[in-house]
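Exam revision sheet. Question 4 asks you to relate a sequence to its structure. Input first:
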Amino acid sequence: MRSYRWRRRTRGQAMVEFALALPLLILIVVGMLDFGRAIFSYNSLSNAARSAARVAIVNQSTTAIEDAARREAVGLDPITVVVTYAKDGTACSAVERGCIARVQITHDWMPATPIINGIVGPITLDSSAQMLVEYAPVSP
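Answer key, structure tokens:
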């Protein structure tokens, strides 16, 4: 008879412990999802930088380079694209073969969870790619 009363008194204890642990468990799971989103965003940014650098080595049009970067940066809006050309550490006055095209893309990533967003805030993701210019327009 005594063991029955003991079980009856502790029946609510598990429910209270679960109610205390559930918010922490949910925060951990949602934090893992936000971390996965951040990794996906960084990979998208890296792919966008590589794709824009490929365009930059054959077509020096800034709008074409930015369009290529925006096409590859899936779900990342807004992004900042900076294109520079250099040869031997100095900026190229005119783009020619042998210059190195460098494309740098930045994006301010925000966590989707308000609690994590309040703790971490926006994170600036940055990726760049550089390639050797293969084709330069012939000037008349």
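Marking note for examiners. The chain has three helices and four strands.
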